[in-house]
From TrEMBL:
SUPFAM superfamilies: RraA-like
Alphabetically ordered keywords of this record: Signal
Keyword Signal recorded: yes
Protein name per UniProt: RraA family protein
The UniProt record lists the keyword Signal: yes
InterPro entries in UniProt: RraA/RraA-like (IPR005493), RraA/RraA-like_sf (IPR036704)
Annotated signal sequence range: 1-20
One Pfam family, short name: RraA-like
Organism: Dyadobacter sandarakinus
């Protein structure tokens, strides 16, 4: 038994050592991080939530998304108090993570050597490496540990490259420079903790596509982000579709309830508690005759409602 335990420990140490010798996890390691996801994946192993769900997510309120995640036990997925370049922007996308740390020369040399073995570009700074992996629909999310002066992860040159590859913006727990230039990139936006005219100094990239912390939130590669002026929420890929339909139905229920309250048909107490059979029937009739386009298909709505307790 002792020999078996020792051998298992050695295997674990070797596995950790092998993982440490790369800038990014392997596709199999990324699949292990996100094993609850059963759908399509990108070539790097990250979950690939559909473009259709990303589009629908844009219409979900932060409170609705937050509430669904809380009910499922995910209490640490929101971060607020951002500075935005364009405050009226909404962004959704599939997360690519990057971790930055204060510069340590021996570790920086190791990261550069690992990057060289992985075929990463050796000219310029390592802060370009996360950009090189971006595909359309990806959002570059970086933990810059809140560093503002000398912590600017991108300027307008890298911003143009990011948008060309991803058609998205960035979310940095850190800072950017060249905000005037970044603001001129049509379609691009940045959620940051500040901006500064300085260049990046005394900080380094440590890894790409590993779990990171963004303020109050734990973020995994392949999460889906909903970013608005009110904050950012990072949604595990396997929960996104259910979160969208749940939030859409909640919005319909709220719309119906507000309408009936304005009409004086029901009291606030009747709307704010479990609905009576009469109210349920009224809601279903209202939905079936909805004066506009429903955000989901009728089948999706029927499947969702059939097992729900109002």
């Amino acid at each position: 038994m002792i020999k078996k335990t020792f051998f298992a420990g050695m295997v674990a140490c070797c596995t950790l050592g092998a993982q440490a010798q790369s800038v990014s996890p392997t596709p199999d390691q990324l699949k292990a991080y996100t094993s609850a996801w059963k759908g399509e994946r990108s070539a790097d192993g990250r979950p690939r939530v559909s473009d259709a769900i990303l589009a629908r997510l844009k219409n979900i309120s932060m409170e609705e998304a937050w509430g669904v995640l809380r009910n499922k036990g995910y209490n640490n997925q929101f971060e607020g108090d951002w500075q935005l370049i364009h405050t009226d922007s909404v962004m959704t996308g599939r997360v690519v993570t990057a971790q930055y740390v204060p510069l340590r020369p021996d570790l920086a040399d190791l990261v550069k050597e690992m990057g060289k073995k992985e075929g990463r570009v050796q000219t310029g700074g390592t802060n370009s490496w996360p950009i090189d992996v971006l595909k359309e629909g990806d959002v570059y999310v970086a933990d810059g540990y809140g560093k503002i002066a000398d912590g600017t992860l991108i300027g307008d040159n890298l911003g143009n490259s990011i948008y060309a590859k991803s058609k998205r913006g960035v979310i940095f727990y850190g800072s950017v420079r060249d905000v005037e230039g970044l603001s001129e990139i049509k379609g691009f936006n940045a959620w940051t903790k500040g901006n500064d005219p300085s260049y990046i100094q005394q900080m380094m990239l440590s890894n790409i596509n590993t779990p990171i912390r963004i303020g109050r939130a734990t973020v995994l590669p392949g999460d889906v982000v909903l970013a608005k002026k009110y904050g950012t929420i990072f949604i595990p890929a396997h929960l996104v579709e259910d979160l969208v339909i749940t939030s859409e139905v909640t919005a319909l229920r709220d719309e119906f309830g507000h309408l009936r309250l304005r009409e004086g048909k029901y009291t606030p107490g009747e709307i704010d508690t479990k609905w009576s059979d009469a109210i349920q029937k009224d809601f279903l009739n209202w939905v079936n005759n909805y004066p506009g386009k429903l955000p989901m298909t009728k089948k999706e709505l029927d499947d969702y409602l059939k097992d729900r307790n109002y």
